[in-house]
Amino acid sequence: xxxLTGHLDLxxxxxxxxxxxxxxxxxxxxFHISKPYWDGDALLLQLASPTPGLFxxxxxxxxxxxxxxxxxxxxxxxxxxxxxxNGDGAELRQTFRLAKGARLxxxxxxxxxxxxxxxxxxxxxxxxxxxxxxxxxTIAPGRVAHGESFRYKAIDWECNVTYAGRLVLRERFVLExxxxxxxxxxxxxxxxxxxxxxxxxxxxxxxxxxxxxxxxIQSDDIRIGVSRLVAAGWSIKLLAADSLALQRATAQxxxxxxxxxxxxxxxxxxxxxxx
Length: 275
Known about the structure:
The protein has one domain (7-271). The strands form 3 sheets. Strands 3, 4, 5, 7, 10, 13, 16, 17 and 18 form a 9-stranded mixed beta sheet that branches. The chain has helices spanning 183-186, 202-206, 210-215, 243-256, 265-271; strands at residues 7-14, 20-27, 32-33, 37-38, 43-48, 59-66, 71-75, 80-82, 90-98, 103-106, 111-113, 118-127, 132-139, 154-163, 166-175, 193-200, 222-228, 233-240. Helices cover 13% and strands 43% of the residues.
């Protein structure tokens, strides 16, 4: 089967009136972007894929740059998928660059790894002083409705965040359902859905009252934890019993952060959240 080597390259800038716009854009399949629009707070951009998902051997690169003061909110209208793979895995390499005072919100729809799939994703994020980031990503156990959970081979997930020249987060995990170590992840919930958020904001760092709201999300079908980074940010991990619990928890998480990352209700629904 032919493989894809798609790319996405976006640069968001701010005009003289304070409105953000795409100064540069370039992309190829499987990436596709809709016409962005300014919602009064940020430039809203839908990132969609014209293909049904990723196959073995696909190699994708994504680079998103925000100039000083630019505000960009990227949403995905449908879940990302990795299909059954008999050979090589698929890979996505992402680079994000935020200049001083820029703000990026990237909350893609859940990633669904299917039977025997292998997927590697890396994110290299560099944020200048005063920049802000909300990155929220979720991983489903598989096609639950088809009775297919934790049947993938491996997910290799890496994220490095530098703020004002200082490394504040370096994270990597490899999920291999066939390994003995993976049993601990399925212990609380046999069909667990996983979410990871990175919040970079000087304001959220100084005013941490919202952390209590995050901790209050904990319930019989939700496990959640918040960790303060060495500077300017927070790491949030969430494990949900099923997709409905995940949706409810991420909605509550998003609401707790609304003071720092405001989003109107219709944006939240596009993210897969509900109020």
